[in-house]
Design brief:
This protein is of the alpha/beta class and 353 residues long. The chain contains 10 helices and 18 strands. It has 2 domains: 176 residues, Alpha-Beta Complex (2-enoyl-CoA Hydratase, Chain A, domain 1), CATH 3.90.226.30; 161 residues, Rossmann fold (3-Layer(aba) Sandwich), CATH 3.40.50. The strands form 5 sheets. It has a 6-stranded parallel β-sheet with strand order 3-17-13-14-15-16, with helices on both faces. It has a 6-stranded mixed β-sheet with strand order 6-5-4-7-10-11, with helices on both faces. InterPro entries: LarA-like_C, LarA_C.
Length: 353
């Protein structure tokens, strides 16, 4: 027996698997902070006033990127007490989440002595546009980059972009930086790095999320379904999303109930992506949400524990069903299994390092 663990709220949950399973192998972790510092010092001066951080929670290596940026800022002679740091959580479509992310960034850079850390303001953004840190990450069938971020928040000018590329398993696999970072190259790189082709066709796919605070409300973690949106039909998908604080805000709930169409394009796409997957697969959700809500609004079956969900999944398929275990589905897209020599293998190009 092997214990396999997933983040679940502020804790971890596990299930025991004996055989016929595969654990998704994460992308290779970026580890070249010296080169990043060297490059950033070409673009950062002692006059740098502000850093904007587009924060995505649950990424291995992202906090190190943030710390490296501040190392470069300090070495460039910036007065850290006068420096302003602004944090955005725009992908999550939830202002309350942004407040939590601000506190997380404060913890990461507390030792640097930065004077001001706050949520990104909604006006006069060009006054705060020196350095932008924004990951390129697979999200609901597409890759969202700094270009999407800048357009969404209305930021038109900046001196330098730091763009971590997120690979499968929620791992920062590369970091691009400079005053001209190719959006096309980032999208291509992230699509390649996020892809995973199973070694054997899975009948059951278990997907973990980023944990607290993102999985505290359904609104901020619904996009996790996109991890499996490219799989062929009739799989059993087991998702672990705690949602101890409920569904989310009024706009999100009204959209789930089909009472309105939200102005926020990304919120609409979160819901659209879930519904697409739920229409093709058997969805099992390990969550604190009531079973009636999960069934009615999400077309899924609710379970209190991961073991219960796995028992049900194997009852639907078989005890010998092959299981793919994805510890962290952030920035990950599981592709169709391709037998050796298949056209599908040529199309996907295999798993990137």
């Amino acid at each position: 027996m092997v214990e396999l663990w997933l983040r679940y709220g502020r804790t971890m949950i596990f299930t025991d698997l004996e055989d016929n399973f595969e654990v998704l192998a994460p992308a290779k972790l970026w580890n070249n902070s010296e080169k990043l510092v060297e490059n950033l010092m070409k673009h950062i001066s002692s006059e740098t006033r502000a850093i904007i951080i587009d924060y995505v929670h649950g990424l291995t290596g992202f906090d190190k990127v943030v710390e490296t940026v501040f190392d470069a800022v300090r070495k460039s002679g910036v007065d850290l007490e006068r420096l302003e740091v602004f944090v955005s959580g725009w992908r999550y479509c939830d202002e309350s989440m942004e407040k939590v992310l601000v506190n997380m960034v404060k913890t990461i850079i507390s030792e640097h002595g930065v004077g001001k850390i706050s949520a990104l303001p909604s006006n006069s953004l060009d006054e705060y546009s020196d350095v932008v840190v924004s990951p390129a990450v697979y999200w609901n069938g597409d890759v969202l980059t700094h270009e999407d971020f800048l357009e969404t928040v209305g930021l038109r000018t900046f001196s330098c972009v730091v763009a971590p590329v997120v690979g499968r398993g929620g791992v920062v696999s590369e970091v691009y930086s400079g005053d001209e970072v190719s959006d096309t190259d980032l999208r291509n790189e992230a699509m390649k790095a996020s892809a995973y082709i199973p070694s054997k066709e899975p009948q059951v796919v278990v997907v973990g999320g980023p944990g607290y605070p993102v999985d505290s409300r359904l609104q901020t973690c619904l996009n996790m379904a996109s991890t499996v949106r490219e799989l062929p039909e009739n799989k059993v998908i087991v998702l672990a999303l705690e949602c101890s604080e409920g569904l989310g805000g009024k706009t999100f709930i009204d959209t789930l109930l089909n009472k309105m169409q939200p102005d926020n394009h990304y919120m609409a796409k979160d819901i659209e992506s879930w519904r697409l997957v739920a229409s093709r697969q058997k969805m099992c959700l390990v969550t604190a949400l009531p079973s009636s809500i999960v069934s009615h609004l999400l077309a899924a079956r609710q379970f209190d524990t991961l073991d219960q969900a796995m028992t049900y999944a194997r009852r639907l398929k078989s005890r010998e069903a092959h299981v793919l275990f994805v510890e962290n589905g952030v920035g990950t897209r599981v592709l169709e299994y391709a037998a050796e020599g298949d056209e599908a293998e040529d199309k996907h190009g295999g798993n990137a390092d």
